[in-house]
Structures are given as C-alpha cells and as structure tokens.
Write a structure and sequence with these properties.
Keywords: Repeat, WD repeat. The chain is mostly beta strands. The chain has a single domain, classed as Methylamine Dehydrogenase, Chain H (7 Propeller). The chain is built from two helices and 33 strands. A five-stranded mixed beta sheet has the order 1-30-29-28-27, with no helix packed on it. Strands 2-33-32-31 form a four-stranded antiparallel beta sheet, with no helix packed on it. β4 and β5 form a beta hairpin. The longest helix has 7 residues. The radius of gyration is 19 Å and the shape is globular. About 5% of the residues have low confidence.
Length: about 400
C-alpha cells in the first residue's frame, strides 16, 4: 500500500502560537465554537478551557466533571434552541451542556441513572435537531448501554438500548442526513447503526459490522451519490471502511502507507482522527481527511482519492513536526480560519497555519453535503488504544 507526496506538500516545524495546560494534564479533546476553541484536560483538573479565536487568549475555565472527561463536542442546537454550545460527558456519569452565557455552571445536565445506579459514560453526541442526546456507557458486569435523553426533560434517560454492544461503547455519532440514525462503536469490535427513536430495543438495530478487534473511534463518510458510508479505527491501528449497510469494504494497517526516501521520510505510528470537509475533495470520491501521528509527536495529513479502490495510493499533503513531545491526543481543523490545532500528552496546544490546497477547487467543483461542521473532535474514548498512556 503506497503513500505518495502531493505536489503541494509542505512541512512546518513552527506553530503560529502555543500554550500549555496546567498540572501537566493531557489535552484530551478539542472543539470549536463561534467565538473560541475549547480543550478538555485530564486529571487532576478534569476541566474545560476556552480560548479566544483571535489571539488564543484564555477566556475561562470550567471545572467540568468529577472524573475523566471522555468526550467534548461542539453542538449547534440543543433542546430546540439554535445556539452554539459544547457537550461533554464523563466517567462521573453525566452529560453536560456548556454555554458561555451560563457562567461557571453548565446550562444543562443529564445523569446516567440506570436502575438507580450511575454509569460511567465514554462517548456522547446530540442529534442534528437538538432534541435527542445519546451517550455510550462502559461495561459494568455484562451490561454496556446506549442511553438516550430528551434534553427538554433531562432528569432521566428517555430510553436505554442495552443489547447493541457487549463491551465499552467508545463512540456514538448521529447521522447528519438521517437524523434518527445513530452510529456506534465498541471494544467488542462491532460498528452498529440503530434507530434512536425506537423505544423497543429489539427493533432498534439497523446494521452490524464486525471489525474483529476493539474499535477506538468511528465516523461517517460522505460520497458523491449522497449515501453515507462509515470509517473505523481500531486499538490495533487498523483502519476500515464500511458501506451504509456496514458491509466491510477495506481493512488495513494504518501504519502501512509510508515514505522512505533520501529527501523525505514519513512513518505512521497511530491514527489521531479524521476530519469531514464541507465538500467532497476535488478528484476524490469522499470528504475524508486522515491525521496520523508519530510517537515523537509529529503529525501528517493524508487522503485517499478513492476509498472504494484498494489500488489507489494515499496522498501526503502536509507535515507538522517537532511541535509536541510524545503522543498527539487531539486535533481540530478550523477550515474557516485556515488553522490546525493540536493537543498532546505533553500538555501543549499548538496552533498551526493550514490553508487547504483544495480550498478554491472545493468551492468550485466539490459536491456540497447536506449538513456539515467545521469542528472535528477527538477524545480519550476515540484515541486511547492500549499503547497509549491513560490519564484519568
């Protein structure tokens, strides 16, 4: 499996700006709001840090949770209120919605109470209409559940689907085109789609795919026909793509595409995460960019023009080097401002210039997706395979 350097390949070793979280905390997740960038930190603070977009000055800290923040997401709509906010979930068994106007307290809180017990939450998402919140629990005994809330009545889950997965539920993502369809992934190796509106969990399941190894992260892919497909990254650093009905298309080791030349070397050690563009990339049958990392703290951006043709080589577009020491945990591409933000286990947050070489061509030629978001968030639940150190 080949990796070729793009004609527009560039290498940067100096971030535009940089900051560091206190207490040597890991930067677990990054997300974007209209006015700022948010970062979630590991223990001991378990906090959310908000930075101004203009100069990356810290605006505020939210003491977010009593335990590890397992997911941080940007939300455009919650409980019917169209306003940008942040959603977090935690191993403390809560989902919280944060709004800059709500001061130091969350604007909304949902508790993961199942049969009078609180459950640790590893992943969460909010539906496009803002009327359903989903979260995946860890495995407790024989049970791992997807919980659903109506945020207008947040006191208790609206329904519980307990038979979708049999191990930790590491990722949940609502479809951007089919509002009630939820994609989920688990340490049991399964990627699943289900109907979030179905009260009978025996009838809720739509499709199931088995990757054969623990899934750390997953997400949707948009294609030219408008039918979504799925990607998944495993703890064993395999990367797979799946049809809309979760038939496996490809499965390979993400570390295989490499470049070894006298003038250029890139070797991938792990997948950081994926980014969905507003439009299909020119010359591509998909809207997906992958960001991969090295154990030394370097980052590379790669794409594949065809995710359906196994003979298509990967393209290396950009590299960011020497910005971090060790594992890069989280990454956010703000395409509107041509910035890439990276967060690592070294407590550093780096802001890099990242104008897309596809920008003009995408506007002119790319197919518009029905719905999109600038932000890509990668959280501990998505990027904590066994080779990475946990910070709880």
């Amino acid at each position: 499996m080949s990796l070729v350097d793009s004609p527009s390949l560039s290498v940067s070793s100096t971030p535009a700006t940089s900051t560091r979280l206190p207490s040597e905390a890991y930067v677990l997740s990054l997300a974007s709001t209209s006015s700022g960038y948010a970062a979630s930190s590991s223990a001991p603070s378990n906090s959310i840090h908000l930075f101004d977009k203009a100069d990356f000055r810290k605006i505020r800290d939210w003491v977010g949770h009593k335990d590890t923040i397992s997911s941080l997401r940007s939300v455009a709509n919650i409980a019917g209120n169209v306003r940008e906010s942040l959603a977090t979930c935690s191993k403390d068994g809560t989902v919280k919605i944060w709004d800059e106007r709500s001061g130091s307290q969350p604007a909304l809180q949902m508790n993961a109470l199942v049969t009078s017990r609180s459950r640790a939450l590893l992943s969460c998402d909010v539906s496009l209409d803002g009327l359903t919140v989903a979260a995946g629990t860890d495995l407790e005994g024989d049970d791992a559940s997807i919980l659903y809330w109506d945020p207008r009545n947040p006191a208790a889950p609206l329904r519980v689907h307990g038979s979708t997965h049999s191990d930790d539920i590491t990722a949940v993502h609502f479809s951007k085109t089919q509002g009630s369809v939820l994609l989920s992934a688990s340490s049991d190796g399964l990627v699943c789609t289900s109907n979030a509106d179905e009260p009978d969990e025996d009838e809720a399941g739509l499709h199931v795919g088995n990757a054969g190894s623990s899934i750390a992260q997953t997400g949707w892919i948009s294609g030219p026909a408008g039918t979504p497909s799925v990607w998944a990254g495993s703890d064993m650093e395999t990367f797979s793509t799946w049809s809309n009905e979760l038939d496996q298309i490809h499965n390979f080791d993400i570390r295989q595409p490499t470049i070894h030349r006298q003038d250029l070397t890139w070797v991938t050690d792990y997948l950081i995460g994926c980014h969905n563009h507003r439009n299909l990339l020119p010359g591509h049958d998909n809207d997906l960019s992958l960001f991969v990392g090295s154990n030394e703290g370097d980052v590379a951006w790669i794409t594949r023009p065809s995710l359906s043709d196994p003979n298509t080589p990967w393209s290396l577009h950009r590299m960011w080097t020497t910005g971090h020491l060790g594992i890069v945990r989280s990454l956010l591409w703000d395409e509107s401002h041509n910035l890439l933000i990276t967060g690592g286990e070294d407590s550093k947050i780096n802001v890099w210039s990242n104008p897309s070489p596809f920008a003009n061509a995408s506007t002119e030629n790319g197919s518009k997706r029905e719905s999109d978001s600038d932000a890509m968030d990668v959280d501990e639940g998505m990027t904590s395979p066994s080779r990475k150190r946990r910070r709880d």
